[in-house]
Design a protein that fits this description.
With about 80 residues, the protein is mainly alpha-helical. About 55% of the residues lie in helices and about 0% in strands.
């Protein structure tokens, strides 16, 4: 969890690193495996988020934002996969 300053200039390297590992990573991994999972008699996708997705920490706004986004993505994915195993 990198420290950032939501009230100042964004450190682009920190932003991209945080987005890549916390949001794009889980989305890409699930995407790579989802068709395989859907062929199984029973499968579960579990994404680990954080309470900071619900109660953000101003000291690390970028990190908190990715956790909120991952939670939202997971809810959407759950809805889209309701009729699957």
């Amino acid at each position: 969890m990198a420290i950032d300053d939501a009230g100042g200039a964004v450190d682009d390297d920190v932003l991209i690193s945080t987005l890549t590992s916390n949001l794009a990573g889980p989305i890409r991994m699930t995407s790579a495996l989802i068709e395989h999972f859907k062929k199984q008699p029973s499968a579960t996708v579990i994404n680990v988020s954080s309470v900071l997705g619900f109660v953000p920490l101003a000291l690390s706004a970028g990190y908190s934002s990715t956790k909120a986004a991952l939670h939202s993505y997971t809810q959407s994915q759950r809805y889209k996969l309701t009729a699957t195993s």
